[in-house]
Amino acid sequence: METLRTLDRNAERWLLLTFYVMLVITMAVEVLRREIFAYSSIWGEEIVRYSFIYLAWIGAAAAVKERAHIRIDVIMHYLGPRPKALLYMFGDLVMMIVAVIALYWSWEAVHVSYKFGSVTHGLRISQVWFLMAVPSGFALMIWRLLQSLRRDFMSLKTGKPVYEGDTLFD
Q1: In 30-162, which ranges are E strands?
Q2: Cα distance between residue 23 and residue 18, in whole Å
Q3: Per-residue pLDDT tens over the stretch 85-144
Q4: Nearest to 86 by CA among 5, 2, 156
Q5: Of 85, 87, 64, the residue nearest 145 (C-alpha)
C-alpha cells in the first residue's frame, strides 16, 4: 500500500528524470562525436527526439496533477471556496472530455502502426514504442484528472479551500 502511494506521488518525477537524463547524456555524446570525430549517428538523434516527446506528455500529466498549467485565474481571487471548487471541477471535466477523445485518436495511430509493422529509421525498432507516448500521456492525464475531481469534490463537501496548485509568480 505504501509502495503504491509512493508511486502515485512520484511516478511523473521519476519518469521525467529518466527521460531527461537519457536526453542530456545522448545529446552530449552526439555533440562530442560530431565535434571531435566529425561523425554523428541517426540513433542518437532519434533517442533525443523520442525522449523529448515522452518528456512533453509526462510533463503535461504532471502539470495536471499539480494544477500547474498556464491559466488566467484573475477571477479566482474574487470567488469564494464553493464557486472556485465548482469552476475548477468544470475545467477538469472539459479537459477530461478532450483527453478521452485525444486518447481514442492517439490509440488509433498506435494501432495502425502496429498493424503495418512500421519501424523507426535509425533504431529499426517498432514505432509503436514511441507512438505510445501520446496515449500514455493522455491516460496518465485522465488518471490525474480523476484524482483532481475527487480532491475537489471532497473539498467542496467539507468546505475546505480547493487545491489551487503552485503559482508561478506571487
Answers
A1: none
A2: 9
A3: 888 899 999 999 999 999 999 999 999 999 999 998 888 889 899 999 999 999 999 999
A4: 156
A5: 64
Please tell me the distance from the alpha carbon of residue 76 to that of residue 164, in angstroms, as a whole number.
10
Beta strands in 56-156 (DSSP E): none
Give the number of other Cβ atoms within 10 Å of residue 164's Cβ.
12
59 within 8 A of 137, measured Cβ to Cβ:
no
Torsion angle in degrees (nearest 10) through CA of 28, 31, 36, 40: 120
Here the cell at position 153 is: 469534490
- Of 97, 68, 42, the C-alpha closest to 166 is 68
Q: How many CB atoms lie within 10 A of CB 81?
A: 14
Cell (9 digits) for 23: 536526453
Residue 77 DSSP label: G
Give the C-alpha separation, 77 to 74, whole Å.
Answer: 6
